[in-house]
Design goal:
- The structure holds two protein chains of two kinds.
- Helices cover 0% and strands 56% of the residues of chain A.
- By secondary structure, chain A is an all-beta fold.
- In chain A, strands 2, 4, 5, 6, 9, 10 and 11 form a seven-stranded mixed sheet that branches. Chain A has a four-stranded antiparallel sheet with strand order 1-3-8-7, with no helix packed on it.
- In chain A, strand 4 (32-38) and strand 5 form a beta hairpin.
- Chain B is mainly β.
- Helices cover 0% and strands 54% of the residues of chain B.
- Chain B has strands spanning 4-7, 10-14, 19-25, 32-38, 45-51, 56-59, 62-67, 72-77, 86-92, 102-103, 107-112.
- The chains are: A mainly beta, B mainly beta.
- The interface between A and B is medium-sized, with 25 and 26 residues.
Chain lengths: 116, 113
């Protein structure tokens, strides 16, 4: 089946530093990947749609200069949280469309970010 | 903008009973409706999905119904088991390649032995 990985699974950083999260599709090519943020006991909120070879599309209210997205290949998208602050602490999850099913999205295992 | 409402937010049932979770969506162009199960600290797992050209789909103890006219869809779990306990999310999208998912608020299902 379609497998999506994320790295790291957990990260703790100091306020003001930047953190990069990688999302990889392991056994399929993904022209589109999605980045979500999930706060405790809440739903998944779409942050941005990442398109290979082009600029990401950000949802309303998401600062594109703070959450940098790069989708340089058909199997890798990265999210960089710049100048992280404690309020950025959250569970970040990526997903990708499987080549076999245009509608189906498969999720990565998520990255738990804690900003001190 | 697009919105998906999900009810109830919590649901507690006895083992063996049925559980029903309902969602409504606002975007009439939506035509793909997946359901995800998420255990604490884990990734959402797709459990069933339905497209707008059908009204019902079943997979063993899980079924989903769709009413496009009323813009609502429901998840039905029969013969619930303790391992069904998790948070369930509905979602809707326009279904094209790269179509973004709009998620409901989630339902925390608890199945008591």
């Amino acid at each position: 089946g379609a497998v999506v990985s994320q790295h790291p699974s957990r990260v703790i950083c100091k306020s003001g530093t930047s953190v990069k999260i990688e999302c990889r599709s392991l056994d399929f090519q993904a022209t589109t990947m999605f980045w979500y943020r999930q706060f405790p006991k809440q739903s998944l909120m779409l942050m941005a749609t990442s398109n290979e070879g082009s600029k990401a599309t950000y949802e309303q209210g998401v600062e594109k200069d703070k959450f940098l997205i790069n989708h340089a290949s058909l199997t890798l998208s990265t999210l960089t949280v710049t100048s992280a602050h404690p309020e950025d602490s959250s569970f970040y999850i990526c997903s990708a469309n499987s080549a076999g099913g245009p509608d189906t999205q498969y999720f990565g295992p998520g990255t738990r970010l804690t900003v001190l | 903008g697009e919105n998906v409402e999900q009810h109830p937010s919590t649901l507690s049932v006895q083992e063996g009973d049925s559980a029903v979770i309902k969602c409504t969506y606002s975007d009439s162009a939506s035509n793909y409706f997946p359901w995800y199960k998420q255990e604490l600290g884990k990734r959402p797992q797709l459990i069933i999905d339905i497209r707008s050209n059908v009204g019902e789909k079943k997979d063993q103890r899980i079924a989903v119904t769709l009413n496009k006219t009323a813009k609502h869809f429901s998840l039905h779990i029969t013969e619930t088991q303790p391992e069904d306990s998790a948070v369930y999310f509905c979602a809707a999208s326009r279904g094209n390649q790269g179509g973004k998912l709009i998620f409901g608020q989630g339902t925390e299902l608890s199945v008591k032995p």
